[in-house]
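Appendix B. Raw example, untouched.
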Amino acid sequence: MSRAMRTAATGMMAQQLNVDTIANNLANVNTTGFKRSKIEFQDLLYQTVRRSGISGAQAPVELQIGYGVRPVATQRIFSQGNITQTSNALDLSIEGDGFFQIMRPDGTVCYTRDGTFKLSADGEIVTSDGFALEPELSLPENATDIHITRNGVLSVLIAGETESQEIGQIELAKFINPAGLSALGRNLFAATEASGDAMVGVPGTEGFGMLSQGYLELSNVEVVEEMVNMIIAQRAYEINAKAVQTAEDMSSMANNLRR
């Protein structure tokens, strides 16, 4: 009975991780630019009691006993989230593929779909954590109006002037395998060997998405879908727990046999 208990225990641990992943998705339902995850599983090793085709009667199938399940990946789903209007001049959403490039204090570049930008005390465009947008863009002190085109061209209107001045270009990055990016928290991702190197380009060109000023991309978490997945995970956990209980009851019956 020990084998059955251990096998069912792997199922319980797997469903616990499944619920943990769903809970994280639901916790970030209102996180700007958040991309939901789903956990993936594989079956474990099998014990072959009898192989097919080796007995005198040429057995057509094998006799195998499985040893449970294990989690192997948390797949990040990079589908487009809903777009909401904010009317904030520094709020940007990406419609299509691409990530904003963010420079961290240690000099490394990371990537995000969160377009909630602010101005620092020096007029530099930064994230809510104060990390600078890459390439670096700074606004003049006397700028009275900010305009960002769909292609990422940043222009400002200087006080006392009638025509806008172009001061920079926002660039996006994309990856062959965005699911291979490593989540860092703070709505940031880091490139890995699995994701491949970042390909940098101008919004609206070569497959890059377009920008929308005054809009933000919401989380792509579907609450109803996550709730259904949670119910399924809960039922799977319950049935594995029942298997543990059944194996324990059978073991108890065997131990209590008397002549």
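End of appendix B.
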